[in-house]
Amino acid sequence: MRQLLLMMLTLTLASCMQVGDLTVGAADQMRDVRLLNHSKIKRANNWRIQADSHIYISQGLFVPLGYASAQSNIVAQEAFNAFVEYFPFVQCASLAMGFDEALQAARSAGADYLLYTRFAQGNDRIGNLDEVKGVKDGARFGVDRSAIHLMLVEVGSGYLVDTVNIRNRGGLLSSYNNKPEDLIRPPLRDYARRLLGLNP
């Protein structure tokens, strides 16, 4: 009788949830308690675009607050690496530029949309033993943080299709040897999926 009850319980649990669902749930819980990296994406519009859209990606000249040593075009490069997985016609500017210059470059490239990015803020905390040397107080211990802003613009009309604010926070288990820019690509990949309607 006991074996029959155990088998019924096992079958019931197996039919309710798959192993993949358990993994996703566990990862979400670990993000909530700050053990893994966490990102929050806020969009102004729930706009979707076609997968064959030609997207030109550029980064503004803004120096991120609290993180002046950031690479000047890192957000555009990470956006390209994220978007190229889902959009076959993606082009990235080689240098950071102002908005008007980026819009003109997108028009010259024949793009349908300009994804204009800005690294708004970064907070680089100590991430490995080498960085500990020479630090006399604990002010820089903790997890990395970053904030980026995106504008999706229709190139032909100049219409602002979407604005996005992404805030990233490192996790205690994933912060070793990381920088604020290491937090950028996963939420950009999520945003690319949302533009295609693949994420809720």
State the gist of this model.
The chain has 200 residues and is an alpha/beta fold.
H-E order: HHEEHEHEHEEH
- How large, in whole angstroms, is the Cα Rg? 21 Å
Q: What is the assigned CATH homologous superfamily of the largest domain?
A: ABC-type transport auxiliary lipoprotein component
Q: pLDDT below 50 for ≥5 consecutive residues: which ranges?
A: 22-35
Note the gap between the termini: 44 Å
Tell me the helix content: 25-40%
CATH class of the largest domain: Alpha Beta
Can you count the helices? 6
Task: Give structural notes.
- The protein is α/β, with parallel strands linked by helices and 200 residues long.
- The chain has 2 domains: 1-33; 41-195, ABC-type transport auxiliary lipoprotein component (Rossmann fold).
- The protein has 6 helices and 6 strands, in the order ααββαβαβαββα.
- It has helices at 2-16, 19-32, 74-83, 99-108, 129-132, 185-195; strands at residues 38-43, 55-59, 90-92, 113-123, 145-154, 160-169.
- Strands 1-6-5-4-2-3 form a 6-stranded mixed sheet, sandwiched between helices.
- β2, α3 and β3 form a beta-alpha-beta unit.
- The protein is globular.
